[in-house]
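re: that chain from earlier
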Amino acid sequence: MRPGTAMVICLLLPAVANSAVKERDISYESGSVVLRGSLAYDDALPGRRPGLLVVHEWSGLNEHARHSARRLAEAGYVALALDMYGEAKQAHRPREALMLSAEIRTHLPLMQARFDAARDLLRAQPNVDPTRIGAIGYCFGGGVVLDMARTGEDLRGVVSVHGVLDTAAPAKAGAVKADVLVLTGGADPYVTRDQVGELDHELQAAGARYKIVTYPGAKHSFTNPAAKEYGGKQFDMPGDEYNADADRRSWSEILAFLERVMK
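^ sequence. v structure.
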């Protein structure tokens, strides 16, 4: 072996290790609407594995949701970054994002139908254990997964990350089947301390198994590195800001939660 060859091999090892993670676009339907998601999984892992639905922010299925799906695939899950808007629509201005997100958030049957279409698609994948399905959502998507838990969706667990917490349909006693993890920023201007308290009271009254974690000083979209450039400037939301420490700590919290509820 020539000098330096061993070093080259060592440098290449991480790339080889990660090369087993596959990502592919996948289309499915809800009623007459074509939805376009992204499926990520580690092709080197044998057998059926837990499946996770990743629900995007209010702008639509974006790189942040896809990146989350890839990270979950690296952790051993099969992850579907789903499409709540249809045809993978993307909002480029606040008014567009508000219109698209409001259509879903104000029509619970539509939200549930779109979510269930993605869940059924994920369950049907040959490398997915259909009895171990969970969901994670960011911002708008965090509100979606919480509402799905409130309706009693058959999920092992749901994670809301800097998500919308208020709802028009609070959970009823005994309705929540999924374990719930809520990760929120202590300095998020769009999620008030009162809303966190109201959610705490709601989930406790419903008899849900849940945990709420608040990261002091973290603003909205604290897990998205593009938060300030994309949300803050393009969407005129100065409360959006990436926080590397909260991102790291929340990811560890998510993995520990999933390890427990997906067994």
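The radius of gyration is 19 Å.
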